[in-house]
Every structure is written in structure tokens, then in C-alpha cells.
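Sample entry (456 residues):
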Amino acid sequence: MKYKCWFQCINPECAKTYDIFEIVYRCHDCGELLEVVHDVDRLRRVSPESWKKLFDKRVRSTQWPYGSGVWNRKEVVLPSLSDERIVSMYEGNSNLFWAERFGRQIGLEDLWVKQCGNSHTGSFKDLGMTVLVSVVNEMCAKGIKIPAVACASTGDTSAALAAYCAAAGIPAVVLLPRNKVSLAQLVQPIANGALVLSLDTDFDGCMAMVQKITERENIYLANSMNSLRIEGQKTVGMEIVQQFDWAVPDTIVIPGGNLGNVSALGKGLLLMEQLGMIAKRPRIVVAQAARANPLYLSYLNGFKDFHPVQAQKTLASAIQIGNPVSFKKAVRMLKEFNGIVEQATEEELADAAALADRTGMFNCPHTGVALAALLRLRQRKVIGSHERVVVISTAHGLKFTEFKAGYHQKTLADVRSRYANAPVELPNDLDAVRRALFERIERMQADDKVLPAIEA
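Predicted structure, serialized as C-alpha cells:
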């Protein structure tokens, strides 16, 4: 059965459509963003149980390209793409970590962390980039001249773009805000051969610049305002449900910056509902850093208006965004999923990440934002103790070792580091070692009984 999809304007009064292989990011008629729309009626000709059986059969398969967590669902992602043009590193299939000990500490019986950072470039951005770069690869094969693919980034998008373009042999251009990304994030696109432009501005300035660059010469835009990215990223929610044997969790908490990720999460879940694969919706919580919180401020007034903010420096650098391009899409999804928006201060996000690390995780600061938001909502009993909760971890903690080291060295600004665990320097003396060892064991046992105190 042949399935179809196309670009369509998100403005319901316009709804203009475009071919999926056309170079277009906004509607030519009304200027709104686009989304990929599928022929749901045709997809419904397959029963929900048949879809589940097919997707289960493909998990980690060696049959190209279905072993990928994205292309496992090719029919509902991008069915018109040729298999031989797909650029994949078998992204997705990231593990659900049962955070049993951390959940017990904060009074949650069923807490899970979706480790999206366990991917090729160390972040969830791989999910969307495999789709976007694959489409560019197909367009190039069709004879469309695309000199390069470009993105503005605070780190993870640039890493994913550079890696997938390198695999496809397509030039990549990355615009980064100077001195505002971690060394690990800067090294990734450099190592993969991208042209890295370090601009004296913030992410919003880089985003404005890349939009101007991609207006001409067919330089292709790779940021999440390009709805191809959303198609890959929407599989995270679908994968979570599949990992729970097709049961839907009660609440999903996700960090929010440019807001393409929450838009994608909701989009995948809604499609599953349309196909009869799920019968209920989770509540979605978007967590923002208090220093870059335009969605949170809009949420406080019921989304009646939106005002961009000047994002301030935050440890959660990837979501240091004051003017998110996917705001309207995110609000639409939050209204569909009984959504909540919460924020976290610098100290809250750092402490939450460190506290969860003590139970076996190794969290990036953005996951710290999500965990801190969860702690706030637990303290106010907005999230009940019996709920099944999933926190989406967007990147691997190893990309943020400066953040980790700074926390435990107590050098982070505006952070007291209440859970710091600095090395103990001792002489090479048995009595001194034994004394320090047993003192630390007693302290660790005492610390385990202390619940985190996150001020609401």
C-alpha cells in the first residue's frame, strides 16, 4: 500500500500544501510555519494491532533501514523517501531507565527517564536530523542543487547536522554563539568537518542570521522550524509507548527551548491516537530555565499573549532561547495534552541533576531542568505518587563535563552545590584513609534519608 505525506501550513484558515521535496519552511501565502501531514485515512486501512506487530518485529532489525528507532516507523514518518537515500546511524531505540531509587526519594512509585542522549551524537537531535539529511540526500540525487545544509545551534543540533552530513557527503554549515557552548559540543561539528562560524551573539542572533542565509542559493535550513526535523523527533513518544508494551504513561516531562521537541512529542502521540494504537493521552509538562522562560511567562496568563525575552546566561545552554520559533506549535500541543509549563532556577536545575546522579544517572543540565520541574510539581502534589512519569533526558551528561566539575568544585555562579562530592585529599596513611572512608560511608547513609528541598 502506498502512503503519502506533504507539507501543510499550520494556519487552518490557509492550509496551503507543498511537496515534501520542495525547499520551503514557511507558507508563501500567510508566512506561518509548516507541518508534515499524513494521509491518515489510508494509514487507518491497517489495523492498530497490525501496526504494533510490524513495529515490534522491526525493533533493532538488521534489515535496512528498519532497525533505526525512527525508520522503524517509516510509513508514518516519511513513506515517500527511497530506502537507499536514507542516512541513518540507527538512531533511537534509547533505553528507558527505571529511576526506582530517585523516584522513591521524591515519593514517586513509577518514575522512568528516557535516555535520548544514548544516541550517535549524544542527543535527541539525531532523531530529527536523520529525516532532514535523508530528504536533502534524495533531493540532491534528483538533481536539485543544494550547496550546503546550515543550522544555528547551541550545540546539539550542530553535532547532529555535522555527523549526518558527513555520513552523506553533504557540506554542513554551523552557526554557534561564541563562548556559549561546551567544549565537547564545539568539538563535535569541527571533528565531522563542518564549517563552524562562531558569532558574537546569542542563539537568537544565530537563528536570525541562518534564516537570512537560507533565503537564497538553496542553502538548506536544518533548524526545527523545518518540519522535517519534527517528523523524526515525534518518534520519541511513540517509542516510549512501545517500550511500555503499548501502554501510555500518565505524565511526560520534557525540557523546552526552541519548542520543536514538545511539538514533536505531541504530534507522534496524536497520530498514534488517530490510528487507534492508544486510547488515552498523557499530560505533557514543559520545563524551562528561569533565565530563558518565554513559554512559562505566557503560560501564566493562559497563553493569551506571547512576548519574546532576552535570554540570560544559564547552565542549560541548549535551551537558552528567548524567542522560540515553534511557540505556536508548542501551545497547540500543550492545549491538546492538558499541558503544564514549569521553570527551574540555576540552583534548582544543578541540584536536581546532581541528586539524580547519586542514584546512577549522569544528567546534562537540561535534564536537570526537567527533574527540577518534576520536583516542584511533586512538592505541590500536582503530580501524584501513583502516576507513571517519564522524564525525557535530551543529551548525554558527558557533553557537559565542565558543568559537572564546576558543581562538585563549587565554582558555579549562583549555585551552592548542596550535593557536591569533591575528592578527599589525604596522605598515604592507612589510619587517615580508614578514618575518611568510614566518615564518608556514614554521611552517605544519612544523605540517602534526606529528601530534596526544592522551593516552589
